[in-house]
Write a structure and sequence with these properties.
Elements: H1 5-14, H2 23-43, H3 45-49, H4 54-64, H5 70-81, H6 84-90, H7 93-123, H8 132-142, H9 145-165, H10 169-177, H11 179-184, H12 188-201, H13 207-226
Helix pairs in contact: 1-5, 1-7, 2-7, 4-12, 7-8, 7-9, 9-13
Protein name: DUF8198 domain-containing protein
Domain DUF8198: 17-232
Organism: Acinetobacter towneri
Length: 234
């Protein structure tokens, strides 16, 4: 079985999302993603501001939580899968596994946020600016607690794998050797998605430690939301 088969399944899920054919939903999804990023920047301001954490914080906000290039990235992954047998010969297996985990997280984030956007369109005017109370009530109505905890568990696993597989000099050297092929065959966005992960790790002693600090705080917020706390994002 192809090592890239999981990516094929992820893309099939991604292209089923309703926002692809609904401009109003797409706009609301963008609103939700913008709110999410602003909220995370607020919540994790101290952690994100530490010099060695800056690149990893940017990777979280712009890659794992719905980056602006994700449609283009999905298109490049779809093209790559047509040449899976060749790609598997030049991309290190551990890089494929870890990259797939990153893509899976990004797609799950979009899936959960699309559900929020759909509910918001049902409950509020489409152009109404989002605020914390709207989001708190929407999270409660959707009861996404278990799904959001799954997302954080996956993130914890990604942190472990980044430390375990992606700090290897051999793996990074092999990855850099793919740069020419990525440019030649127009896979720059996909290459940059993975390269940003490598660069974000460099200043860190442990990606797992960074992720654990982030997910611990996020779990506390989820617990507050579902416990009825009126200000869970403060």
């Amino acid at each position: 079985m192809s090592k890239l088969a999981a990516l094929d399944e992820l893309l099939e899920l991604y292209y089923q999302f309703k926002y692809h054919k609904n401009p109003m939903l797409f706009q609301r999804l963008q609103d939700v993603q913008a709110w999410q990023k602003q909220r995370m920047q607020r919540t994790h301001a101290t952690q994100f501001a530490e010099k060695h954490n800056v690149l990893m914080a940017e990777y979280f906000l712009n890659r794992l939580y719905g980056g602006p290039d994700f449609d283009a990235l999905a298109g490049q992954i779809a093209r790559l899968l047509k040449y899976a047998h060749k790609a598997e010969k030049i991309i290190p297996e551990n890089a494929i596994k870890t990259g797939t985990s990153g893509v899976s997280l990004a797609i799950l984030a979009v899936q959960l946020d699309e559900q929020v956007a759909i509910q918001l369109l049902q409950d509020y005017p489409e152009n109404m600016p989002l605020n914390d109370e709207m989001m708190r009530l929407t999270y409660l109505k959707l009861d996404q607690g278990e799904a959001r905890l799954k997302q954080l568990n996956m993130l914890d696993e990604l942190g472990k794998n980044l430390d375990k597989y992606m700090r290897s000099f051999v793996v990074y050297t092999a990855f850099k050797m793919c740069k020419g092929a990525a440019q030649k065959y127009s896979f720059q966005i996909m290459y940059e998605f993975m390269q940003d992960g490598f660069l974000a790790m460099k200043p860190l002693k442990s990606a797992e430690k960074f992720v654990k600090q982030f997910t611990t705080t996020e779990r506390e917020i989820i617990a507050k939301v579902h416990a009825g706390d009126l200000h869970p994002f403060s």
